[in-house]
Amino acid sequence: MRIVRIAMAQMNPTVGDLSGNVRRVLGWIREAKKAKVDLIAFPELVIPGYPPEDLLLKPRFVDDNLRALREIIPACHGIVAVVGYVGRGEGIPSPPSGPSILPAGQQILHNAAAMIAHRKVVGSYQKWYLPNYGVFDESRYFHPGRRLPLLVVNGVTIGVSICEDIWVPEGPTRAQAAVGAEVIVNINASPFHVGKGRARERMLATRARENGVIVTYTNMVGGQDELVFDGNSVILDPCGNVIVRGAAFQEELLLADVDVDVVRRERKAQSRKTRLPGRISSTIDRLSVRMPALKKPRPPIVSRVTEPVDEIEEVYRALVLAVKDYVGKNGFHRAVIGLSGGVDSALTAAVAVDALGADRVCGIFMPSPYTSHESEEDVMNLARGLGIDVSVISITPTFEAYRQSLAPSFGDRSADTTEENLQARIRGNLLMAVSNKFGYLVLTTGNKSELSVGYATLYGDMAGGFAVIKDVPKTMVYALAKVRNGRGPSPVIPARTLDRPPSAELRPNQKDEDSLPPYPVLDPILQAYVEEDCSPNEIVKAGFDRVTVARVVRMVDNSEFKRRQSPVGVKITRRALGKDRRMPITNRYRN
After folding, report:
1. Is 53 exposed, middle or buried (0-12, 13-18, 19+ CB in 10 A)?
2. For the domain that residue 551 is a member of, what is the CATH number?
3. What are phi and psi for residue 365, nearest 5 degrees?
4. What is the pLDDT of residues 100-143, one digit of tens each?
């Protein structure tokens, strides 16, 4: 029986923290050595962090990334490590002797994986397929690779690939299997959105079955600006069965004893002959690595398969990790939230407390002449449930002063949304003042439904540093609030907050439905138009009222200028209002 002991370091790197990322890689290598691992895989671009974006245009950054990679090499004795880094040019990276003389635009860069053994880089794989859709811009920075190095570790043939490469049926996995690869080590920085983990695992099972190989999929975990990476690393056997699955949204070292002989048995049973795609036979390099013999047998490892959680729980965990990392990685110590008594600010506060701890979250309640007594009670009950401090700052005196100052200019014009927006902007100013004075990060509380149709105030409720639920539709906000209330001995979000009709409380008896369709109607229309690019006619054919659809589409199209000025927020749907959807502001095209 041929057994390869594989470790997958489901790791949370920080973009640009080269020395910190190296320290963490070395720590995981030490842990893997204690477990007598043969091979350890790290995520895609683990050295620079993912995505490094225009840092890659700085030649010095690429040089420093190569130096950082060299720091890992001495630790790789008695173990093989597959480490993601930025490669320059072709071949095995060498330590730069000085700053690069190449201008940024002339660098030939690769999204690469170094294969390190016996205290040297024995090979380097360059990613073949560079995603350039949605949030990805890899063709902006990288050149595709076309070589296929195969590691032969104690007689076991291992193919290495990077993320997108394994999504392509006729890609490197097919070629590696055709020339004898028994195990595929695929390293990733695959960002989360709802349902992606399940789709990803189905794809991996297909790739394992159609090629008769063991697939190891090592994914990054952690938050990076608007992206959050879910981990969920897996190993699948040649029949597509999951034999190891990591937890979602947490760092861990996953260990498995992989029986490679099962590949031979499965291929023989299926009489499998994998066809070599394309013209790549000349690109294959076999790199033999002989590991030292064990002095005594190692105890077997029992693989762990973590059960996946349901989608709403998964989204909640994604939001918590994204807030934790954005606050921590950007050097903030506390967060401040404007609490209104509504479900959006309540959910945002709950996420923040779970991410940071109650002692690092403070709320500010800013009542206006139109704020109800029920809202104040709900804010105080929420604060008690979460264990956070709340300050009360009435905006009524400031609002009156604004109106008096503007009266000569406004004349006899009647009150309208101008006065409503004044209240929101006063609140935004107060929150930003607290942020400036104490160094707190303002977490904004607007949801995807509101931001899509422009039901938000520039420099008011949109003011802040991080938009926690920016990509969460209103109907999902309620579902997430109920999930959070299901934790612990008692609910933290007051029942009345969930039951009352949503209202901005900026004028007497105001309700959201005065300005918007009901959210159960609005959200499916927005999903079809924003996330799926359906035309208004297609949405109407799906059963929605034509007048309502036209109104919603018009609001979405007319609100791009607001979205462009909104703070960064967490991507949790297939298509978020950020890098995913880049519409021109000046735009006369209409469906």
Report:
1. middle
2. 3.40.50.620
3. -100, 125
4. 545 555 689 999 999 999 999 999 999 999 999 888 999 999 99
Q: What are phi and psi of 157, to 5 degrees?
A: -90, 125
- Interval 508-537: pLDDT, tens: 888 888 889 999 999 999 999 999 999 999
Q: Which residues of 288-302 are buried (b: 16+ CB within 10 A; e: fewer)?
A: ebeeeeeeeeeeebe
Local structure of 501: helix, strand or coil: coil
Print the SS3 string covering 89-150: CCCCCCCCCCCCCCCHHHCCEEEEEEEEECCEEEEEEECCCCCCCCCCCHHHCCCCCCCEEE
Note the pLDDT tens digit of each residue in 148-174. Answer: 889 888 889 999 999 999 999 999 999
Q: Mind listing the pLDDT tens digit for each residue in 55-73? A: 999 999 999 999 999 999 9
Q: What is the pTM of this model?
A: 0.93
- Convert the pLDDT of each residue in 311-344 to its tens digit: 999 999 999 999 999 999 999 999 999 999 999 9
Report how far residue 239's alpha carbon sits from residue 207's, in angstroms, rounded to the nearest whole number.
10
Cα gap 25→45, rounded to integer Å: 12
**Dist. CA 294–CA 536, nearest whole Å:** 66
Kindly state whether residues 259 and 363 are assigned to the same domain.
no
Count of domains in the chain? 2
**Residue 338 CB contacts under 8 Å (≥ 6 apart), including other chains:** 345, 363, 364, 365, 366, 427, 430, 431, 442, 445, 461
Taking residue 433's Cβ as centre, other Cβ atoms within 10 Å add up to 11
Q: How far is CA 231 from the centre of its chain?
A: 10
**Phi, psi dihedral angles at 139 (to 5 degrees):** -70, -15
Q: 92: domain range?
A: 3-289
- Residue 262 pLDDT: 85
- Active-site residue list: 44, 127, 163
pLDDT above 60 for 258: yes
Residues 206, 332, single domain; the answer is no
Element (H, E) at 352: helix 343-356
Last residue of a domain, one of 222, 256, 289: 289
Tell me: do 285 and 319 sit in the same domain: no
CA angle 39, 41, 44 (to 5 degrees): 160
| Residue 11 belongs to some domain of the structure | yes
Residue with tokens 């609030």: 481
Q: Which residues of 1-50 form beta strands (DSSP E)?
A: 3-10, 39-41
DSSP letter assigned to residue 258: E
Q: Is 30 exposed, middle or buried (0-12, 13-18, 19+ CB in 10 A)?
A: exposed
Domain assignment present for residue 557? The answer is yes
pLDDT of 91 higher than 70: no
| Shared domain check, 323 and 267 | no
Residues 142 and 94 in one domain: yes
